[in-house]
């Protein structure tokens, strides 16, 4: 195992990232958004990288978390910790339902089912505009308060999100390093063999969906409080697509690759959008480059650099004497 893949190294890199971002970014909102989407992409990585499930339904759970926070905070006076917990539970319940139905098929049929569910939930949110606000979304979503002080300052809310992010990332690391996580890897590599050994593969997949949905909805609730709106766009198919692109760019072989993918995508989007209105064309070229030359994403590039710098000197081979 590469030393960078060890749990302690992953957590150390996350803490370092959280500490370094305020030093290099002038926008607290952008830095907070990077952490939120890094959390969401890590949850997607649990499905794609560890279970082998290419799901286009992550936007469903992100949007549900957004609407849960928007409805609870704009219409009822519910404490933010309870709102976040409720959003996570609602996301887990929805993901369990979507996963239970989708994993009945495999391959392209599974992908099409998750895509169909994504469109279904989008049109439900659009239709029930009295609850979701329709195209306008839910406006005026407040930020949390600590000791009676509302975290309206960008960097104060960044600190709040950073604490949540480190805690969630640590939980995901423990999940992937547990027996449950190792079983997910076995299912990804050979589901038939894992089932023959006696593992209930469908149950494990549903549990992976539930965990991923809970974390994604949690991130959606944080995002609603960041921008002050619960928009319809958060539950669109394009949100699922964006999360998957971040996952692929960062690399699905490591959870910290999710942080790299989210940061790279959002920073590139922020930079290119000010230079050229059609910056998505350039992003497409970046994705093609990653697909052709960086199959392990940015994390694979980091591992190569580590091996080149810190590789150990090998002792010369001892010649074998001929008889």
UniProtKB/TrEMBL annotation:
<feature type="transmembrane region" description="Helical">
    <location>
        <begin position="7"/>
        <end position="28"/>
    </location>
</feature>
<dbReference type="InterPro" id="IPR043428">
    <property type="entry name" value="LivM-like"/>
</dbReference>
<dbReference type="InterPro" id="IPR001851">
    <property type="entry name" value="ABC_transp_permease"/>
</dbReference>
<protein>
    <submittedName>
        <fullName>Branched-chain amino acid ABC transporter permease</fullName>
    </submittedName>
</protein>
<dbReference type="Pfam" id="PF02653">
    <property type="entry name" value="BPD_transp_2"/>
</dbReference>
<keyword id="KW-1133">Transmembrane helix</keyword>
<feature type="transmembrane region" description="Helical">
    <location>
        <begin position="157"/>
        <end position="175"/>
    </location>
</feature>
<keyword id="KW-1003">Cell membrane</keyword>
<feature type="transmembrane region" description="Helical">
    <location>
        <begin position="208"/>
        <end position="230"/>
    </location>
</feature>
<feature type="transmembrane region" description="Helical">
    <location>
        <begin position="279"/>
        <end position="298"/>
    </location>
</feature>
<keyword id="KW-0812">Transmembrane</keyword>
<feature type="transmembrane region" description="Helical">
    <location>
        <begin position="242"/>
        <end position="267"/>
    </location>
</feature>
<feature type="transmembrane region" description="Helical">
    <location>
        <begin position="108"/>
        <end position="128"/>
    </location>
</feature>
<keyword id="KW-0472">Membrane</keyword>
<feature type="transmembrane region" description="Helical">
    <location>
        <begin position="84"/>
        <end position="101"/>
    </location>
</feature>
């Amino acid at each position: 195992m590469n030393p960078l893949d060890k749990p302690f190294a992953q957590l150390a890199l996350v803490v370092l990232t959280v500490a370094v971002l305020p030093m290099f970014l002038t926008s607290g909102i952008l830095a907070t958004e990077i952490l939120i989407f890094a959390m969401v992409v890590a949850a997607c990585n649990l499905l794609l990288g560890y279970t082998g499930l290419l799901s286009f339904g992550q936007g469903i759970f992100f949007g549900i978390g957004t609407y849960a926070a928007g409805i609870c905070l704009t219409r009822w006076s519910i404490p933010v910790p309870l709102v976040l917990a409720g959003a996570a539970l609602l996301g887990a319940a929805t993901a369990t339902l979507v996963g239970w139905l989708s994993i009945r098929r495999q391959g392209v049929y599974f992908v099409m089912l998750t895509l169909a569910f994504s469109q279904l939930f989008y049109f439900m949110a659009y239709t029930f505009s009295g609850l979701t606000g329709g195209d306008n979304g839910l406006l005026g979503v407040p930020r949390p308060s600590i000791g009676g002080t509302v975290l309206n300052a960008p960097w104060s809310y960044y600190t709040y999100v950073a604490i949540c992010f480190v805690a969630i990332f640590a939980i995901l690391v423990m999940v992937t390093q547990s027996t449950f996580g190792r079983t997910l890897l076995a299912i990804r590599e050979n589901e038939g063999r894992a089932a023959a050994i006696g593992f209930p593969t469908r149950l494990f997949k549903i549990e992976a969906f539930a965990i991923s949905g809970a974390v994604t909805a949690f991130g959606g609730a944080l995002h609603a409080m960041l921008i002050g709106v619960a928009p319809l766009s958060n539950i669109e198919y394009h949100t699922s697509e964006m999360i998957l692109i971040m996952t692929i760019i960062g690399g699905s072989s490591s959870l910290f690759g999710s942080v790299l993918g989210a940061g790279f995508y959002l920073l590139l989007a922020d930079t290119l959008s000010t230079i050229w209105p059609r910056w998505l064309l350039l992003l497409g070229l970046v994705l093609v480059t990653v697909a052709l030359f960086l199959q392990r994403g940015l994390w694979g590039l980091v591992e190569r650099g580590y091996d080149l710098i810190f590789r150990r000197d090998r002792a010369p081979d001892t010649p074998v004497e001929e008889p």
